[in-house]
Amino acid sequence: MIRSDFIRGHLDAIILRLILEKDRYGYEISKEISSRTNDRYQIKEATLYAVFQRLEKKELLESYLGGISKGGKRKYYTITTLGKAYLKESVAEWKVTKNIIDLFMEGLD
Amino acid sequence: MIRSDFIRGHLDAIILRLILEKDRYGYEISKEISSRTNDRYQIKEATLYAVFQRLEKKELLESYLGGISKGGKRKYYTITTLGKAYLKESVAEWKVTKNIIDLFMEGLD
DNA sequence: CGGATTACTCTGCCTGTCAAAGTAATTTTA
DNA sequence: TAAAATTACTTTGACAGGCAGAGTAATCCG
Lengths: 109, 109
Hints:
The structure is a homodimer.
Chain A: H1 4-7, H2 11-21, E1 24-25, H3 26-36, H4 45-57, E2 61-65, E3 75-79, H5 81-105
Antiparallel strand pairs in A: 1-3, 2-3
Helix pairs in contact in A: 2-5
Chain B binds a DNA duplex through helix 1, helix 3 and helix 4.
Protein name (chains A, B): PadR family transcriptional regulator
Organism (chains A, B): Oceanobacillus chungangensis
Pfam families (chains A, B): PadR
């Protein structure tokens, strides 16, 4: 498990990206992150739902209630136009960030 | 200027890396970061001195008072053996983190 | 002398993450 | 069929890192 401070700041983009692929609900996203990272990172529930609240308030996401399959009622999220723009910007920022951090992390072997 | 949340978690390693190169004092590090990043990132003074306190408490750094050249007395920092080990570990973690975030940031063009 | 620059410190705030606990429904299992 | 496991979401309160802002001090330059 990597430290969450390393992911901090990128979580919004990660969630948005998964929802860009298709509408998703919280629990699904949580499992999806774990599986895609081979359990090297797991988002905590409290964190995930805090992200939803933040993104919905910023109008980057919208939600609707979906069916019940097993367990509680699912709340699905869909990305807005604003959310797509934000995600695009985040990806660009990530590239810059990577280069900056690499400046200091390289040449140490 | 990139968002500081993107650097969060990596700041300790960045500072340690600069001090690994040679003993340095706060103001110098601040300027060095700005110049190496072409002002794409500037550490805030309050942040920098908080990092020093944290790293010294963890015994990753040690300090000694140096001469006065211009302005206040300089406090130099030197990296400890523990600090070197921590830095090495941080670099390895950074590589993992990069791959994980890339998982979600790629394939969007 | 006085402003600009160098250099460090402290206080209090904001934000993001998380542990912990709770609610509720459905499926599995014994 | 009752209990246990799983799915699914919510809330509260705490903590840590980063930062604005203000302050202290010494030195250099005009």
